[in-house]
Design a protein that fits this description.
298 residues; 10 strands; alpha/beta; five-stranded mixed sheet; 14 helices
């Protein structure tokens, strides 16, 4: 039997899938992020090898026919040095690596000039025009970009909490933030928020709390979620204006998948300008898109 490996290395986690030559999924494993910009190359390689070891434990130390890795630290195909540094210890006849966005793009099925909008810990949008050119917008990172992301939603909510704390106002957001960080006074959360041990995904995790509070009707939480949906829609407009022939806009990432308020506000913005554009969740998980690419590698 021939084995193929597809990997989706997002900003928060890494998901790997193994298939046979017919495309049958044999197993999946989940591990920590391989984004070497956020955790460093040594840690990223350690995280990747941990996932690979979990696979070997189930099917033996086989040699993969081919491997394709999508990595959130990239925006184009990896050069030889980067590929070797991260993936050099994987036993495979062929290995290639590109951005996780590219993998998501290849996970859209039955679409002419597809585009994929991703909102998870970070945010970005990618698309392919009729000439086969891959274009993207966003991806500026959490300091100057990532609008619409879980991180952006969480940080904006925490900024509100700071104001509520200073003014002495009561708020479901403030109560939830104190509970999330395990403090009785929000000011005590400063050390935890700014701690080197508090990674982006930890902060972004607070977005799920903001979502629930928004769903309960809290005007501040609802405003934060909807405003971030509007902000990310503007990023997507920038790409759609360059790929006017796009027939499908696929949505992926935890914010799109689990936050209905965000998703519907975003779709309303896009549909107002592009009423004929089909907007749907991504057809298959990106790790399976990576597998498709791996099986087609020459």
């Amino acid at each position: 039997m021939k084995y193929y490996l597809g990997i989706d290395g997002g900003g928060t986690k890494t998901t790997a899938a193994v298939s046979d030559e017919k495309g049958n999924i044999l197993l999946k494993k989940v591990g920590k992020t391989i984004n070497f910009y956020s955790v460093g190359m040594d840690k990223a390689r350690e995280n990747l090898l941990s996932v690979i070891e979990d696979i070997y434990k189930e099917i033996g130390e086989i040699i993969f026919e081919s491997v394709f890795v999508g990595c959130s630290a990239l925006d184009s195909e990896a050069d030889t040095e980067t590929l070797t540094s991260l993936c050099g210890e994987i036993r495979a006849k062929k290995i290639k690596m590109d951005s996780d966005l590219y993998v998501a793009l290849k996970s859209v099925e039955n679409a002419h000039c597809p585009c994929v909008a991703i909102c998870g810990t970070g945010s970005m949008v990618i698309g392919e025009d009729s000439d086969g050119n891959v274009k993207f917008k966003g991806g500026w990172g959490h300091i100057i970009g990532d609008e619409g992301s879980g991180y952006a939603i969480a940080v904006n909510a925490l900024k509100c909490c700071a104001i509520f704390s200073d003014s002495g106002e009561e708020s479901p957001l403030l109560e939830s933030a104190e509970e999330y960080f395990g403090v009785s006074d929000f000011r005590a959360a400063i050390d935890k928020i700014y701690s080197p041990d508090t990674t982006k995904d930890v902060l972004a995790g607070f977005a799920a709390k903001v979502q629930k509070i928004a769903e309960s009707g809290d005007v501040f939480a609802e405003s934060i979620v909807v405003n971030e949906a509007h902000n990310f829609a503007r990023t997507v407009f920038a790409l759609l204006s360059e790929i006017e022939e796009c027939s499908v806009l696929a949505l992926y990432g935890g914010v799109f998948q689990h936050n209905e308020l965000f998703r519907e506000a975003f779709k309303e913005d896009i549909s107002e300008i592009y009423p004929d554009l089909e907007i749907r969740l991504l057809d298959i998980p990106p790790e399976e898109g990576a597998l498709k690419i791996a099986r087609e590698l020459k």
